[in-house]
Design a protein that fits this description.
- This protein is 35% helix and 20% strand.
- It is an alpha/beta fold and 424 residues long.
- It has two domains: 115 residues, Urease, subunit C, domain 1 (Roll); 292 residues, Alpha-Beta Barrel (TIM Barrel), CATH 3.20.20.140.
- It starts with a strand and ends in a 9-residue tail after the last strand.
- The mean pLDDT is 96.
């Protein structure tokens, strides 16, 4: 018989219960907040959600988890990170403060190119140890599902190295890891010497790197950084169509710094998500509204870069686009592991309501990973992924700016205490 746990005495149970799909428009304002509610977990799934007194009487013989008046939520879903990297890039923050731009830093060998050199120089063991510690900290803020990209290798052996690290970490942390191949993160300098060399790199992504990734079953998604100065819309389409043909789901880094038509391409290709979108056009908003593509917004990135413009969350929500929030955890432009901090920015910078921000980091984050029928809700049949926060009202989650209020998490019914975590 599967073990059973009954979660009781929560000040609120934030169920986010509803359709097993992304929420749009007014649906995002309903986080399904309940009081006097208990949650029965059977094995690795949620079995019942109901009146506390009734469930305690019905299940008086099961293990009782006393929430102590705290808030119980679905485990948070961080649907965009670059957590496998070597050295941090703190020196770039000072360069930006002195007026250097994103592309200027990249052209001088910084930015993504700096992380590429670091990853290429590191062993798989070294990357795994670094990533384990970083992801353990990320989990400590209440996240239980996290997407992790490659993209700092940019050649076959180093992209595979990053993806193998993700596979190796599965089961060692209280996290469900979703791997994404991002070989098209940047054009390496050695392939920028001519148009022919560039075309050769793009062709090699589809014909050499992708088959290796698929052969080893190392990725669920393929992603491309579609941005002027990086990959063009046509190059992006070529790589993503090849990835789709090979059985991968699709994501795009879209319209981050300049409008390029990337959001429209994401919609046309049926991508699971289009991410960033700080420079999305009105046509891009309309295209996403007419599609099933989730708009994943990353306000921590624009804040850290010192940019005044954020993605137009209100316009997207009012147009009927499903909006998710994620950290974009990476060494250069968003070095944060705190998804609650991103919820703060969602409310204060993107003008989302606290309830919309919660949905964006649970149900819609799950939808951005193709998991809306499995995680992101406290509802019968869903994975028992839970987070307990030291607060009396879930609206405190985006309110306590930068604080870590997570008391514990459970992944598939197992508490984070059952994992061997490093000392941070």
């Amino acid at each position: 018989m599967p073990t059973e746990k009954l979660f009781v005495n929560a000040s609120q149970v934030v169920t986010c219960a509803g359709p097993a799909r992304a929420r749009r428009g007014a649906e995002m304002a309903n986080a399904g907040i309940r009081r006097d509610t208990a949650v029965l977990v059977r094995g690795d799934v949620i079995a019942e959600v109901g009146d506390s007194a009734a469930l305690e009487l019905k299940h008086s013989d099961v293990e009782r988890i006393d929430c102590g008046g705290a808030v119980l939520t679905p485990g948070l879903v961080d649907s965009h990170t670059h957590a496998i990297f070597g050295a941090p890039r703190y020196e770039e923050q000072g360069l930006r403060a002195a007026g250097a731009g994103y592309m200027e830093i990249a052209s001088a060998g910084g930015g993504i190119h700096s992380s590429v050199r670091s990853v290429r120089a590191a062993s798989e063991d070294e990357l795994a140890e670094l990533a384990h510690r970083r992801l353990a900290r990320l989990a400590s803020y209440g996240t239980t599902t996290v997407e992790v990209k490659s993209g700092y290798g940019l050649r076959v052996e180093d992209e595979l190295k990053q993806l193998r690290v993700i596979a190796r970490l599965q089961g060692t942390l209280p996290l469900r890891l979703i791997p994404t191949w991002l070989g098209a993160h940047e054009i390496p300098p050695e392939f920028r010497i001519s148009d022919a060399a560039r075309r050769g790199y793009v062709r090699g992504l589809a014909e050499e790197m992708l088959p290796k990734v698929v052969e080893e079953r190392l990725a669920r998604f393929a992603d491309v950084f579609c941005e002027p100065g990086v990959f063009t819309v046509d190059e992006t389409r070529y790589v993503l169509e090849a990835a789709r043909g090979a059985g991968l789901l699709l994501k795009l880094h879209a319209d981050e710094l300049e409008p390029s038509g990337a959001a429209e391409l994401a919609a046309a290709l049926g991508a699971t998500s289009a991410d960033h979108l700080a420079a999305i056009s009105r046509a891009g908003v309309d295209a996403l509204a007419a599609s099933g593509t989730v708009a994943t917004l990353l306000p921590g990135t624009m804040l850290f870069l010192g940019r005044g413009r954020q993605a137009p969350a209100r316009a997207l929500i009012e147009a009927g686009v499903a909006v998710a929030l994620a950290t974009d955890f990476n060494p250069g432009t968003s070095p944060t592991v705190s998804l609650p901090l991103i919820l703060t920015l969602g409310v204060s910078q993107l003008r989302m309501s606290p309830e919309e921000a919660i949905i964006a980091a649970t149900v819609n984050g799950a939808a951005a990973l193709g998991l809306a029928d499995q995680v992101g809700q406290i509802a019968p049949g869903f994975s028992a992924d839970l987070a307990l926060f030291e607060m009396e009202d879930v609206r405190e989650l985006p309110y306590w700016y930068g604080e870590r209020r997570c008391m514990s998490t459970w992944l598939r019914g197992k508490t984070c205490n059952e994992y061997q975590l490093p000392v941070s």
